[in-house]
Design brief:
heterodimer; A: mainly alpha; 11 helices; globular; B: mainly alpha; 14 helices; 1% strand
């Protein structure tokens, strides 16, 4: 691009740099606090560094319970989202039918409406029909808003891949099942994986909808929320926060690289 | 196994509409029955009422909950407070996001671009609760922000800001300013990405045409770039506005004890057990969002999503 479009280039660079510092520094601060020897306050500069809180957190059963529940919920919701999302994608891409627009709207709705609306409507429906709150009620809620990540990823991939491959496969005598198994599946595999990982991270981190659809159990975000409001051991909360950063960041990075590779190949 | 699947797939292959129906059925049942069904029951329940003596929900059509909702001026305060916050957060996020998005789309080289993109996407997806919590650490009285300002000799500035009426408070983490800061921080990436995407889509030939026709950089920006990027700003504003409207975690963890819509909904359904009123309350953000989305659609935001 010609240099004359670099409007006030230095100002722009500074603004961007400051913006990025603003976005990223708070996360680094959390990581730093996980190593603090200070037990009662959020004192800065830190009085000393220690790794003992990682050990303390490791011993705590309530944390393990929360992690187990969160992992179960995220895994089952992701599987449901993958099945529902992928089937719908296969139907929507390349075919025209009445109400096609409605489907993409329907998929986006659970995340477009404020979380509180999704949360309270599911809760009120569940209590109206006398469904007891359990792991499954959380799963139902999470799968509902996870579908969109799988749907968008897979649909984007299907739109980008050329349909001539499917036609070629059929011309060469493959039956529809073989075409699906050997042509379509390998084509969308990484998009499925990426969508699934994002969905897992999304579910693992969800708090607003979960507070409405969980009974007495606590997922990791619910556990954290309770600790923020009534702190028991602050440094342990910081350790769990670092753990959550890792659990959500790694799938996002992986998903990014899985879909990026595909972009490069198509261009 | 495979032959059975073979037959099934072949059977369906020649019956396109049946196949389509089967593929869509699970999603339609899930979202149509579970999700839309729930939204519908919420709407229905907002027309129920609660017996003030027994606390039992009466399942008869009445507008009592809505009457209750709009009769009390405190509820109006909550609605106005939340909407004002959502609006301010949206405007400020747009102002901060635009130069960042502009740099990412127009100035950054091919090597830097993916790094910047990842740098925005990572915080967007990563833990919401942890990010809110980090600001509790930062804004604590003995925390890092106070320390920084002290070192810079600007502590009196913080005190001056906190002594302002309405937006001030006893400390940053118990004030509207603190809440506002956290909202902007959390939703900023949701604003950057749509603007960046819409800037990215501007054909470079338009910029060349503008300059060929004698337009200076400022003129090109005002007459060409900004109007074309505006739908992206509106698209981003849908997220920042909607997310602020429904959030109740940030006002709970950070901020003074004044209520926001989300907290009111939560309290009414939980401690008070008044589901009809909570339902009526949550219809408010739905209506506000519907109005907002209608305006956004007119401004072309949906093409920029």
């Amino acid at each position: 691009m010609p240099s004359k479009w670099n409007l006030g280039s230095i100002g722009l660079k500074t603004a961007t740099l400051l913006g990025f510092l603003f976005i990223h520094i708070p996360i680094l601060i959390i990581i730093m606090y996980a190593f603090s020897t200070d037990e009662k306050t959020f004192q800065f500069p830190l009085p000393g560094f220690t790794t003992k809180w990682f050990g303390v957190a490791w011993e705590r059963n309530d944390i393990w319970d929360a992690i187990t529940l969160s992992s179960q919920v995220a895994l089952i919701s992701t599987i449901i989202a993958i099945i529902l999302g992928t089937l719908a994608c296969l139907a929507v891409y390349r075919s025209q039918f009445f109400g096609k627009e409605v489907i993409s709207f329907l998929v986006i709705l659970p995340i477009a409406l404020p979380g509180i609306v999704t949360g309270i409507s599911l809760r009120s429906a569940m209590s109206l029909f006398g469904i007891p709150f359990s792991t499954w009620t959380i799963v139902i809620a999470h799968a509902t808003f996870c579908i969109v990540t799988v749907y968008n990823n897979v649909l984007a991939r299907l739109r980008r891949s050329s349909h001539s491959m499917v036609e070629a496969s059929m011309d060469l005598g493959a039956n529809p099942w073989q075409t699906f198994r050997y042509v379509i599946m390998p084509n969308i595999a990484t998009a499925l994986l990426a969508g699934g990982m994002l969905s897992f991270a999304l579910s693992f981190d969800e708090v607003i909808v979960t507070t409405f659809t969980a009974g007495q159990q606590s997922t990791v975000p619910i556990w954290m929320l309770t600790e923020f409001i009534r702190p028991r051991q602050r440094p342990v909360t910081n350790v769990v926060a670092v753990f959550v950063i890792l659990v959500t960041t790694i799938p996002i990075l992986a998903a990014y690289y899985l879909t990026k590779e595909d972009d490069g190949r198509k261009k | 196994m495979t032959t059975a699947l073979d037959k099934l797939f072949t059977f369906l292959f020649y019956r396109k509409s049946l196949a389509l129906l089967l593929l869509l059925a699970p999603l339609l049942i899930w979202l149509g029955v579970v999700y839309l069904g729930s939204l519908f029951t919420l709407l229905i329940q907002s027309f129920f009422s609660i017996d003030s003596f027994s606390g039992v929900i009466k399942r008869e059509f009445t507008l009592e909950s809505y009457y209750d909702l709009f009769r009390q001026s405190t509820n109006w305060d909550i609605i106005i407070r939340t909407t004002t916050m959502a609006f301010t957060v949206t405007v400020v996020s747009a102002i901060i996001a635009f130069p960042i998005a502009y740099y990412m789309a127009m100035n950054a080289g091919p090597r830097l671009k993916p790094i910047l993109y990842l740098g925005v996407m990572l915080p967007l997806w990563s833990s919401y609760l942890v990010k809110v919590y980090s600001w509790k650490l930062i804004m604590a009285k003995e925390g890092i922000l106070t320390w920084c300002l002290e070192k810079l000799g600007l502590l009196h500035l913080l005190d001056a800001v906190l002594s302002l009426p309405v937006i001030g408070g006893s400390s940053l983490s118990f004030s509207y300013i603190g809440m506002f800061l956290v909202f902007v921080y959390i939703w900023l990436p949701y604003m950057i990405l749509p603007i960046q995407a819409s800037l990215e889509r501007i054909p470079k030939s338009l910029l060349e045409a503008s300059s060929d026709l004698g337009g200076g950089p400022m003129q090109t920006f005002r007459k060409v770039i900004f109007p074309l990027a505006f739908p992206g700003v509106v698209a981003g504003s849908i997220f920042t506005f909607s997310l602020t409207l429904g959030d109740y975690i940030i006002p709970t963890i950070i901020g003074n004890s004044s209520y926001f819509i989300g907290m009111a909904v939560y309290t009414h359904q939980g401690t008070a057990g008044n589901i009809p009123l909570a339902a009526a309350f949550s219809v408010v953000p739905i209506v506000i969002m519907m109005v907002y989305l209608t305006i956004a659609k007119r401004l072309g935001a949906f093409d920029a999503l």
